[in-house]
Amino acid sequence: MTMVRMNWLSLVGKLMVGVAFVSTLLAGAEVLATPKLGDWVVYERSFDGQVKDTVEIKLIGHKPESKLFYKQTTVRRNNQSEVTYEPISEHLLMSEEVIENTLQKCIPKGGTLENLVINHQVVLTCQKPLVEDQVMGAQWIGHIPFGLAKLDYESGMERIEMVVIDFGFGN
Fold first, then answer.
1. Residue 72 falls within a domain, yes or no?
2. The pTM is what?
3. Which end of the chain has a smaller Cβ tally under 10 Å, C or N?
4. Residues 137, 167: Cα–Cα separation, whole Å
5. Is 103 a domain residue?
6. Which domain holds residue 114?
7. Which long-range contacts (CB under 8 A, 24 or more apart) does 4-12 make?
8. Averaging pLDDT over each range in 56-65, 129-138, 153-162, which range is the top one?
9. How many domains are there within the chain?
10. Considering the domain boundaries, does residue 13 fall inside one?
11. How far apart are CA 75 and CA 81, in angstroms?
12. Is residue 127 in a domain?
């Protein structure tokens, strides 16, 4: 079990590099630039259908001259929290243009467009197959901070699902 959870963190790290980190369209309002300081997202993570924890990811620092953001990840499980901090290069965070391109080319590239409701907000996503090493499943990319709205996959004998339950944009 521990190995699978460690692999999950590795997989999410890889997805954060290869998956869209996006902005949102707020009820027809202007597109907000992302990534930006203060962007955050909270995922509910379950293993074999049982909710086990929440994972909050937040951009807490930015050094434009070195093109680095600083990310805080908080995993909450059984009334306990584990917090980690790490830098992430701006160039690993995809631009709005790349995200919009992902949504526009979703169907021709084998994905499906799907609306997800996240904390009473409808978010358009592209649901795409996920094949990474020995992991198979699906990912939903949409107009939220960090782009990854949902992840559902099997690793070994365990099914893991991660769904955004709340998000917000920085200044």
1. no
2. 0.77
3. C
4. 23
5. yes
6. 2-34+43-52+93-168
7. 4/47, 4/155, 4/156, 4/158, 4/160, 5/47, 7/135, 7/155, 8/45, 8/155, 8/160, 8/162, 11/132, 11/135, 11/153, 11/155, 12/148, 12/151, 12/162
8. 56-65
9. 1
10. yes
11. 6
12. yes
